[in-house]
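Can anyone check this?
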Amino acid sequence: MKFAPILFLVLLQFASANAQTAPPDAIPKCDMVVSFGSMCCGTASDDFLKAYIIKFNTSSKDGIKGWKLGGCGREGEYKILLAFPTLKESEKLGLVEEIKNLIDEQNKKNKIASANSGSINITTNLASTNFEYCRGQLKELDK
């Protein structure tokens, strides 16, 4: 019985030492970062955002590229990085505003469904060094 706490600490140290991080040079340049946070009970779903991206890309020929970066917290927090490489600056501003409104609506829906729902936040123009604490893998969003 005395070995259980020691074994737990050894396994915990091994797991944290082997955690994979996305190096800053692997992070693509992004125009917007959508952060999915947690308040005790996990993160909110990102299905609404993925559906929006698919719909937008269908009408504008892949105007949005996206990547998911996991492991940004203790309760499954993650970030979705969005880039708008083919859009003009005025189109980017309009798209950012649309996504902000979409996320505001979703946050309201999530709070109505559960007071403990994790928040969804937006940040624009972040440097790749802001993701050094994320220990998950970077993968392209499913289309």
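Reply from J.R.: I decoded it. Residues 24 and 129 are 6 Å apart (CA to CA).
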